[in-house]
Task: structure prediction
Amino acid sequence: MARKTHIDYQDVDQHYLEHRQLRRGAAGWILLAGLGVAYVISGDFSGWNLGLGVGGWGGLLIAFVLMGIMYTGMVLGLAELSSTLPTAGAGYGFARRALGPLGGFATGMAVLIEYAVAPAAIATFIGGYIEALGLFGITNSWPVYLVTYLVFIGIHLRGVGEALKVMFGITAIAVVALAATVFGLLPKFDATRLFDIVPDGSVGSSAFLPFGISGVLAALVFGIWFFLAVEGVPLAAEESANPAKDMPRGIITAMMILLVFGALMLVLVPGAAGAAAMSTSDSPLPEALRAALGPDSALADFVNYAGLAGLIASFFSIVYAYSRQLFALSRAGYLPRFLSLTSKRRTPWVALLVPGTIGFVLAAATGDGGLLINIAVFGAAVSYVLLNLSHIVLRFKEPNLERGYRTPGGVVTTGIALVLAVVALAATFVVDVFAAGITAVVFLLALAYFWFYSRHRLVASAPEEEFALIEREESNLN
Result:
């Protein structure tokens, strides 16, 4: 006897999926690794340093280590899941199989909130870098936000192959800038500068933890910023050449690169220019180089310009990510179906434009990168809890499922990541109750939309739904 699921599927005509096709075979593992680095690399140029102001260097160091462990465990779990269920839905698809339609939609929406808001935060940092360079006489950055969205969404509309190659080139420039920063700051490193923030007298405060134990919790959000969005690599599954092999290799390689660069920036930037000075900087890398090498440093100017490449790389790649997550949720009927329409070039043009418009409005209306980071991190933290839980549930629920890659340590690895993800989620409320509250309301409204409307109008022929329905029918036969 079939189990009652309270989920209804509607019939679609034979042309439905024909108008919702992505270009397959566009990305091998090297491009996927580049995509993973591109998602995150802006976090090395701006944003993370604000954690110095809430946790001090010691608090941010602990946050970096804890979130590094969490992300590494989660990435190893995602490497398995993406090799097993290679669809554009990625996080939504994994959770759909493990936790059912509600769990899948909740995960997909959390990811979508993260990816729709993160580019808006990055756009504000791009504006900050351009103002720091004195380019075009700009003193108000909203025109920068507009041009950024128009240009890079426009490139995505040309096609995924073109977009990924442009992204890879921009990311390479940013990596060179990070390497140049390392070589420029290393001779000027002074460990005493890491501890120049005066302790505030709170519980546990010291030179190492100037804001005490609570500062560590507050810094977790900025520890996340070092790695935020690397989990988006599996969103390229339907456009990769061989997802069973390419996905694990690409996402794990990206994570290793990000760990190395994140650690180097965390140590060398405040170690050369002082934690206190860097805690409020909009462009910490060039400012650190100018503090260490002099105000007329050519290297600082180069990193300032190349830093724009890092910010643009992350902006550019996360636009790709939000469009694929929205495309998958829409194609399966969880969100309005028109959002998953694709062009003749097989790009999800509606899913590119709608969140892009929302992101531009958020950036222009707030101009507050810190607030937008907190909103994005809240969505991310919710998804991390559900993604790690999905890996654990699938290991027990379907132990014989064919897996192209198996996570070292199995559920122990993702179990540790799950615990740390729960801690990170709690930390988002400590850092910014307003941002977390706003995001929670949006998230709950989305869940209400699913519960009262879209769960009765899902599309069974969408790949993520087919995976889950086949598994359900097989279990009913046993």
User: Anything to note?
Assistant: The mean pLDDT is 86. Residues 114 and 421 are 15 Å apart (CA to CA). The radius of gyration is 22 Å. The chain is about 70% helix and 0% strand.
